[in-house]
From TrEMBL:
Alphabetical list of Pfam families matching this protein: DUF3718
InterPro entries (alphabetical): DUF3718 (IPR022193)
Keyword Signal: yes
Organism: Bowmanella yangjiangensis
Lineage of source species: Bacteria, Pseudomonadati, Pseudomonadota, Gammaproteobacteria, Alteromonadales
Domain of life: Bacteria
Annotated protein name in UniProt: DUF3718 domain-containing protein
UniProt keywords, alphabetically: Signal
Presence of the UniProt keyword Signal in the record: yes
Signal peptide per UniProt: 1-21
């Protein structure tokens, strides 16, 4: 077995150990705002923008009035780790304020996926 094949096998065998846990956001109902909340937590900015366009709601209305599990949608996206969408939404919301703090010691703490049910209003 060549050194490259050994390296490939080692990487493939160890890759499941290196995968970090992530939260999975599941819509609690079929409301448009709930779909926007799930998208704000998990999707790329372009996918969120496409959903926003199809929702018929303006980006400013979404940023100011949509609540996800009792939180502003921008703050919800930020808490979920989707900082790109959070920054875009919070630029449109004059009352949004947040501070970015990274806890380096907390890395690798969780072992499995966590399912979070989301409800938007």
């Amino acid at each position: 077995m060549s050194p490259l094949q050994k390296l490939t096998c080692t990487v493939l065998l160890l890759s499941p150990l290196c995968v970090s846990a992530k939260n999975v956001y599941v819509a609690a109902d079929d409301m448009v705002t709930t779909k926007l909340c799930v998208s704000a937590a998990m999707d790329t900015p372009i996918r969120f923008h496409i959903l926003q366009q199809h929702s018929g709601l303006s980006a400013r209305h979404i940023a100011n009035d949509v609540q996800c599990n009792g939180k502003n949608i921008g703050d919800f996206a930020y808490q979920a780790g989707n900082t790109k969408i959070a920054k875009r939404l919070n630029r449109l919301n004059p009352s949004a304020t947040y501070t970015e703090i990274q806890d380096i010691a907390k890395q690798g703490e969780a072992k499995g996926d966590k399912i979070i049910h989301v409800s938007g209003s």
